[in-house]
Amino acid sequence: MHPYYRPRRLRETEIIRNLCAETLLDYNKLIMPYFVIEGAHINQPIESMPGINRLSIDNLLKTLEADVATGVQSVILFGIPYEKDEKASGAYDDNGIVQKACREIKKHFPELLVITDVCLCEYTSHGHCGMVVNNRIDNDSTLNLLAKTAVSHALAGADVVAPSDMMDGRIEAIRTALDEAGLFHIPILSYAAKYASAFYGPFRDAAGSAPQFGDRRSYQMDFRNAREALKEVYLDIEEGADIIMVKPALAYLDVLYRVKQAVDVPVCAYNVSGEYSMVKAATTLGFGDEARLVREVMTAIFRAGADMVISYHTVDILKNRWFD
Ligand code: PBG
Questions:
Q1: What confidence score (pLDDT) does residue 1 get?
Q2: What are the backbone angles phi and psi of residue 132, rounded to the nearest 5°?
Q3: Calpha distance 236→239 (Å, rounded)
Q4: What pLDDT is recorded for position 119?
Q5: How far is 297 from 314, CA to CA, in rounded Å?
Q6: Rounded to 5 degrees, what are φ and ψ at 237?
Q7: For ligand 1, is residue 200 a contact (CB within 6 Å)?
Q8: Does the beta carbon of 80 lie inside 6 Å of ligand 1?
Q9: Is the C-beta atom of 31 inside 6 A of ligand 1?
Q10: 15 in any annotated domain
Q11: Residue 102: half-sphere exposure toward Cβ, Cα within 13 Å
Q12: What is the mean pLDDT of each run of 10 residues along the chain (324 residues)?
């Protein structure tokens, strides 16, 4: 009888489809990003990221109260300081915005896993992720500042530090500094394969971190390259990264897949701002169903190999039980 092979046999009912499903969605695998800004009573919508706001610490705590109740267990923090300068002083100031936020969060939500983004771009007047020397982004003079930033985050209560700057040698510099400060137990989640991407547009609007001259292509990866991601990932693991990240996620699922096959450390994917905003824009225009789009996007990222995902959809997913 033809056809002899009938894959449709396993698609007949929900029950058999569930038995055969290769990828399961898990609420425990999600990390929610927050933008925390200096000041009080601030709850500023970010135009390019509908549903995401810049929050002062008081409002962040209120928002977390609700979000933790819906099931948020892990967060990543991005800081927006009062002032920016050439040396990114706000990044490693013990009274900087992220440091203060960590202390307050830990006071009220000791169980919450707090990851901090370690980078200078939100704190530099020029918006680059490193020091500018003779119009170039200077690698080695940046390392010490990144290490100081990571240590001050950890001392303020961060559970995990996540360097996103893409300077060479930063993982080693940060690991050494953490260990010298006795912070042996703090893991490093390295943005190891981070591409120079147009999908970060809404984030830069949110954090006010767009570079004032040039772009980030002298430190972030060229999106034409996939093998190079393995080089970055191996280097970071050798330097002491505990978890490595591929970023962005959606346009880089091939990279995510390759990295997952190649390494034995957990792999994180960052479902970045532009990916979030695309889904939001499409659903606002009535071009798609948000729940179904988000479920399919998240499934694709996990199917490609992510062990965990940073996503701005996290709170919506939890609130609406989109993974059930
Ligand atoms: C900081 C940083 C960026 C993102 C995370 N950390 C922006 C950038 O590199 O320009 C992007 C996150 C997103 O788009 O959601 N270096």
A1: 75
A2: -100, 120
A3: 5
A4: 97
A5: 12
A6: -65, -45
A7: yes
A8: no
A9: no
A10: no
A11: 29
A12: 93 98 98 98 97 98 98 98 96 98 98 98 96 96 98 98 98 98 98 98 94 95 98 98 98 98 98 98 96 98 98 98 97
- Residues belonging to the active site: 194, 247
Q: Which atom of ligand 1 lies at the shortest distance from residue 220's CA?
A: 9
So what's the pLDDT on residue 68?
98
The number of beta carbons lying within 10 Å of the beta carbon of residue 177 is 19
- Is residue 302 situated within a structural domain? yes
**Domain span at 56:** 24-320
The answer to the question of residue 283 being in a domain is yes
Tell me how many domains the chain contains: 1
Q: Which atom of ligand 1 is nearest to the CA of 203?
A: 14
Instruction: Spell out the long-range contacts of 43-48 with Cβ–Cβ below 8 A and sequence spacing 24 or more.
Output: 46/202, 46/205, 46/206, 47/205, 48/201, 48/202, 48/205, 48/206, 48/273, 48/277
CATH number of the domain where residue 44 is located: 3.20.20.70
Instruction: Please tell me the pTM assigned to this model.
Output: 0.98
Residue 10 counted as domain residue: no
Which pLDDT does position 87 carry in this prediction? 96
